[in-house]
Fold this protein.
Amino acid sequence: MKICVLGLGYIGLPTALLFATHGCDVVGCDVKQSVVDSLNNGKIPFDEPGLSDLFIGARRRFTAKTVPEPADVFLIAVPTPLDPATKVSDLTYVRKAAGMIAPLLERDDLVVLESTVPPGTTERLVAPQLEKSGVRAGEFMLAHCPERALPGRTLHEMVYNSRVIGGYDRRSTEYAADLYRIFVRGEIHETDAKTAEFVKLMENTYRDVSIALANEFAQLSEECGVNVWSAIALANKHPRVSILNPGPGVGGHCIAIDPWFLTENSTRCKMISMAREINDSMPNYVLHLIRRLLPGVKDASIAVLGVAYKGNVDDTRESPAIKFIQLAENEGYDVRCYDPYVKDFLYPLLPLDEATAGSDCIVVLADHDCLRRIDPAAIRVRTKNLLDTRHIMDYRRWVLEGFTVRILGDGSPTLPPGEGIESRESGLSPSLSPPAPAVSISLPRPPGQEREDFL
Ligand SMILES: NC(=O)c1ccc[n+]([C@@H]2O[C@H](COP(=O)([O-])OP(=O)(O)OC[C@H]3O[C@@H](n4cnc5c(N)ncnc54)[C@H](O)[C@@H]3O)[C@@H](O)[C@H]2O)c1
């Protein structure tokens, strides 16, 4: 079997290599010459665990080109960005890719769309583009197989996750399901194309709405005088409750975008767009917390720790850090950023000591494991404030160094400066209480040592 994969990015390349290591001849096609050159010179254009080894194993059956070639199966894995101004999906790449396949398409060939698209796209947009070949949908096969792999675990998830595959017709569904069985070890669920498109978007919308709820809980907790992290841990002990974590907003190219794809043709959906609004407003809320920590501090400087959209990745697409920095700078704060994972960012990235030197508030925006290990004693700030929006830091160490620690969603009663920490905190003796901070301390608790009994 010969497979031609259009788009050799985070999804297309691993998929192409998995087919090639399972006995298929694969032509990978990407419009970017640099991607094709890199692969033909034996280098993968981006990092992903296991990808280099897979590439070595696949090279005998894999070639890269800038134009597609005739094949039995065509796979489309091109970008589907969101137009930021209109919040409408940009399907230009999908349309072009289908247009490139049309002149090569023959009866009984299969085309699979893997890109994430609004419901109906396979039938309404891709099928007519492909029919420009002169062959009709039904004569050629067409299916949607949405990708749900998580960056950092892409290869494992591509093989072991279950898949939903939806065809234009029954023959397409069954043929596409058989195709993926070549390397997929997870279950394959067969449906129609529009349902497959819908399911993929529903999954990420579900997560977005759940995070929005957690973010509202965080804000309510502050009003009610409760610690949301402990409250969520307790609520999640209920067998039918599973609340996600709050945070500084939602980023990445899926969860922050897919709800818009799902609702772009609807005039009814209020909850989904409201959840987007809540999550998009979290950077404003984080800034509001900082304002309260820094009343009267002139020419204040903020050190942002972690600009990636989530922990332990280098991905800054749609990261809430971007909006936070824009808002903070617009308000006159001097913002300096540190993120040891990220190589390219819209704003300069500095070493930790330079980002924090002279700062008036350190704000943790990404839950990178390495941030937990920062030694507060080694940091030369001007004003000792720490705002943790992810609930990851070892608060005791920071408090002992005299930092005022603020945790997103922690509204539990604040204590007078330097007093009584030991009564709420695990094992701090009064003599170890920090010198009186400018703002009272709100119940810092080290990660993993949340106490449930105090509620
Ligand atoms: N990356 C993920 O983890 C992930 C997860 C689930 C779904 N998706 C979806 O998968 C699709 C692909 O995402 P990605 O992350 O791989 O994108 P990407 O940007 O990493 O790669 C896409 C590649 O397609 C190439 N391309 C664009 N037009 C082309 C054309 N006409 N012919 C050939 N190549 C072309 C680009 O040059 C680029 O290299 C998107 O719809 C995305 O939403 C991605």
